[in-house]
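re: that chain from earlier
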Amino acid sequence: MIEDAPYNLEDYVDRYAEESPAVKLQLLTSLTKLFFKRAPECQPILGRLMDLSLSDFDNTDVRDRALLIYRLLSTDPDTRA
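^ sequence. v structure.
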């Protein structure tokens, strides 16, 4: 695992508006996966990315992916049917 991964990805979050939709989708996927390994470091970065992505009305795919991830992360696994 790359030790600086959360901080390297944070640079992309800082440049979110400049990135292509493909990069934005991959950023959502990468940070979500990394969140499960290094939650304390990734939580603020992922939170900022989710805010940006959920308000990205120019790209439906990015917004939908962010909404799916948000719903999965905010659902209590014990209450799912």
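DSSP finds four helices and no strands in the chain.
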